[in-house]
Amino acid sequence: MREASTSVGGRRPDAESAAWLDALSAVGREREEALERLHALLLRAARFEIARRRPGGRERRALDDLAMQAADDALMAIVRKLHTYRGDSRFTTWAYKFALLEAGVKVRRRAWQTREIPLEAEGWARLADPRPSPAGNAETAELIAAVRDAIAGALTPHQRTVLIAITLNDVPIDVLAERLATTRGAVYKTLHDARRKLRARLAEDGLALDGAREGGTA
Amino acid sequence: MSDLGPRPDFELLGRLAGPAGPELTCEACFEELDRYVEHELAGGDADRAVPGMRAHLEGCPACREDHDSLVALLRAEAEPPARA
Which tens digit of pLDDT belongs to each residue from A29-86? Predict the structure, then answer.
């Protein structure tokens, strides 16, 4: 076994993280054992996430299978991306995020697997019928009408679909990405662009949802 | 225009508008999530360490869930085991 002195991107990870890196970069039995330990860690994280998302889930066996799939997929992703670990956090924290991502995506997709994406009209109805509120509602109603006009007039059909599905119909972004055969990042980029155009159109009309600070993607 | 408060109609408009400031992409958010969360849990200035993260977490429900889950998992691990 090599010394646990791995340097990552000029940083020196803590001793435990360096030991993980050394073991996972080794060959033979040492690496196999490290992979087994890592898989057990990822499985625990995946089960934690699924229990949070589906507390008291009656489909215990199916959910445990889901956790196992999440741990398997997370392990593969980690092995593939091990070279990108920079030592900015503990190795286990870095690894956990892969398991939580995989488990979260799987739970959301499972919850929606038999559901259709709600039609745009359902989201429009929600926007058109805000619950009654006290004085000042006239101003809000005017703003909502302007937002509806801006969504209809300033956005492309694709931007409209994404904005309404995610913000008004509560469709999880991963589910929408899967149905549109694209990625979470690509869907979010569309959402970001739609929101920017919406704010810009409202600003042209002398309205602001947020003080009219212009945003961008860092 | 008044601030977007907790009223249902304002909350809805806030979700439509999204965060106004510069924000990370989903990919960059995932890259930095572990570092950001460790800063948060250590009581450090996570937003200064990772500019654009907070705005992204406000605008992206899925990344927000990933963030909350990592915080919850690390907190659970830090808790002393319950006595039998």
Answer: 999 999 999 999 999 999 999 999 876 656 778 888 999 999 999 999 999 999 999 9
Per-residue pLDDT tens over the stretch A158-177: 999 999 999 988 999 999 99
- Restricting to A residues 81-140, those with a Cβ less than 8 Å away from any Cβ of B are 88-90, 93-94, 96-97, 100-101, 104, 108, 126-127, 130-131, 133, 136, 140
- C-alpha Rg value of chain A to the nearest Å: 23
Please say whether the beta carbons of A114 and A138 come within 8 A: no
How close A127 gets to chain B, by Cα (Å)? 8
CA B6 to chain A, closest CA, distance in angstroms equals 12
pLDDT tens-digit readout, B64-75: 999 999 999 999
Confidence (pTM) = 0.85
Alpha helices in chain A (DSSP H): 15-25, 29-53, 60-81, 91-112, 120-128, 137-154, 157-163, 173-179, 184-204
- ipTM, interface predicted TM-score of the complex: 0.86
